[in-house]
Design a protein that fits this description.
By secondary structure, this protein is mostly helical. It has helices at about 5-25, 30-55, 75-80, 85-110, 115-125, 130-155, 160-165, 170-189.
């Protein structure tokens, strides 16, 4: 089988696995299946489009090396602009990414989804040496979007973080009051 055949088989397998996951999600309660459908339907549409393009054979051909046409892959440009890294720098960057992913997971487990995402967004932006104004405003926007979308909009309440369970504290009154105030404002109009 050629590379083109393997590519079609891989995309088809991804589409079938996603379709099976969506079928299984249709048997769940609406709140549990909502996230799977929100992510799965656009992904299935994009996979179907990609599969159709691969089967029909409308892959783009590279532009001649002397022409730089936007949107068309040109391998010579990649070679010219490619950043070569020494193995030590590659390992450092890979380790850094893995540590941030594990840090996000640990923060979500310790303090819950809403506060964990906000805390790690704050730490990531600050470690990137962003200005305080940008860090605070982006972190507040991320926290607000998570609370409004999940808690207020879809009424999906995530579990408390283990730190709050162990200490007996709770973050739900904070987010519930925000959702209640938003629903009162929206309902009043």
């Amino acid at each position: 089988m050629s590379f083109h055949g393997y590519s079609i088989a891989f995309t088809g397998a991804l589409f079938l696995m996603l379709a099976w996951g969506l079928w299984e999600a249709s048997k769940w309660e609406i709140q549990a299946s909502l996230m799977a459908w929100m992510i799965g339907l656009p992904t299935a549409a994009l996979l179907a489009l990609q599969l159709a393009r691969q089967i029909i054979g409308t892959d783009e051909t590279p532009a001649p090396a002397d022409k730089d046409e936007p949107g068309v892959f040109n391998a010579s440009l990649l070679e010219q602009q490619g950043e070569t890294l020494d193995p030590a720098e590659e390992r450092r960057r890979t380790t850094c990414i893995i540590v941030w992913v594990l840090g996000f997971a640990a923060a979500i487990w310790l303090v819950g989804f809403q506060l964990g995402v906000a805390l790690m967004t704050f730490l990531y932006l600050k470690s990137a040496r962003e200005s305080w104004g940008a860090v605070v405003s982006i972190t507040a926007a991320v926290l607000g979007a998570v609370v409004l979308a999940f808690d207020c909009g879809m009424h999906i309440f995530f579990a408390e973080g283990k730190l709050f369970v162990w200490t007996g504290l709770s973050t739900s009154p904070l987010f519930t009051s925000v959702c209640y105030n938003v629903s009162v404002l929206v309902g009043a109009r």
